[in-house]
Amino acid sequence: MKEKSPIKHVPFEKLFKEHYALLCLVSLSILRDEDAASDVVQDFFISYWQRRKIISINTSFQAYAVKAVKNLSFIAIKKAIKEKSLAQNLNEPVFVVQKTLDNPNRYDKIFNLLNQLPKCRKEIFISFVVHGQSYSEIAESNGISINTVKTQMKRSYAFLRSNVKNKDIYYLLLMSLSSLLF
Fold this sequence. Notes:
By secondary structure, the protein is mostly helical. The protein has eight helices and no strands. It has helices at 12-31, 34-51, 61-101, 106-116, 119-129, 135-142, 146-163, 167-180.
């Protein structure tokens, strides 16, 4: 059984007032952003309030809170780095997409590639990518097994990948298909 927290008798408001400034400084020293530090400390207090009945603190509240805020600050840094990386990755293809969209022959290239697929494979690929059908729906409507659909999709992707020189254009091709066809 969990040990009771020695600070249960201290009102939450008092804990907040006594420790908020210190915890903001702790977070600020890690994050170097006042707003982010304040958010981390507020998140800590919200989490503490929600879990106050099950938390077991074996040290002082201040020691517990400082450690928790440090951990939350490091998590916030990791999250910010991940978001920045994702944003950069999302921004890069936009330029490639715009350059490719400016190319008047892009539809011709896409249709030519699709038309090089065998008829049945092309129909399966379009059913999945454009019409959003599941493998089982495609299998049922064509009277084939799900494994056949999987194999044909695998071969379609492999063909497209091997015939598109720029991998960014390959991804654009896949994203554009639903707006181009039917």
